[in-house]
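Notes to self after the call with IL:
- keep both proteins in one doc
- input above output, always
- annotate only the second one for now

Protein 1:
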Amino acid sequence: MISKVRYELYLVLTKGDTYEGRVVVDFHLSDKNLGDLYLDYHGQAIAQLVVNNVKIKKVNIQFSKHKVVIPRYNLKSNSLNRVSLKFTNKYVTNSAGFHRYVDPQDDEVYLYTHLEPFFCNRWFPCFDQPSIRAPLQLNVVTPDEKWQVVGNDVISQSIPVGSAIGKSLCKQGGI
């Protein structure tokens, strides 16, 4: 039913308990008449949902029981679809999601995620099913220029949120 999935994730990190983000999900849908389509998301809130360039009114966003419903009437069968969501979430302290740790030795904040099956949706809205794998382009804005972003791919640059480039990236990412 779903294939050719691709994610572009924009994150704005904070030193506090929450973070914001926007994810753009591209996917091919074979048939939109197969039932409800949803993204898994075990997070705090969905601030905006756009499906194939149509902004869904906030009162019409269906987000409950860790699922965000993608309205069928906005989807295209046998075609590429694009869904964009702005979201907010809390860091976790049990490694099941986006983990936040304050080291008592240096009082610095450390964040990480394992992205293990069915913990990914605790980080950002996605198709969190082992049979649906996809590339992820990650764009991260940090709250402090001392913060370093590390990943399993090449990191082009780390940008503090207060810088002109950081503000521009937030605007570009729609955050």
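Protein 2 (the one to annotate):
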Amino acid sequence: MEHSVKNEEFDIDLREIISLLVRRLWLIILAGIVIATATFLISSYFVTPMYQSTTSIYVMNRRDSSSAITYNDLQTGSQLTKDYMTLVTSRPVTEQVIEKLGLDLSHSELVNLISVVNPSNTRILEITVKYPDPFMAKQIVDEVRLASAVHISNVMNIDQVNVVEEGNLPVYPSEPNVLMNTALGGMLGIMLAILIIIWIYLQDDTIKTPEDIEKYLNISVLGTIPLQKNTMADMASRRKIRKKHRL
């Protein structure tokens, strides 16, 4: 019996919260629009656009190019892929790129602009560079490919690193994604408004209606007295009526 009463009270509270959210729907929508608009403006005018250029290389771990590729060659190459990825962003490679292009960047700053990915079940390395200038992004990624190919050949004693794809010239910035950021900002504004409304509702423990008295205090209400608030205009009009009656 007690369990059913608790469930009933929970259902009533849930309905009240839903009703409250419906009444405050305009405020929730407004919060979503405001946050979405702010996110759009920030992404469009205050965030530096970054352009992405990608190149690919293929590394074969064998010295004799005339012999056929064996299973051991493929197995060894797959195991050494992580070593190749590390060598791409090593200091000799980045310093050579910085010197060749005259970049005003440190080793760590350039490394943060470079990402190396090995697609699944392949021995191809995809080198990607993000930079505010699209032409410079292509130049950097191509120089990284050339410098890393030489460095990998020297360190790993590899005869040749083949170019799968040269760096592309990006046309559109890869980030920020204005559309996605705007949509996420709108959703964040809506969720934030809902949470604030529910929090204010849960913090408000005042009695507002006779139903609240019966619900929370278990006291039956016999009757209610309406409360009338007199404004200054009402009081002034009453004084005028009294003066007329006296005259």
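Annotation: The longest strand covers residues 51-59. Confidence is low (pLDDT under 50) at residues 1-12.
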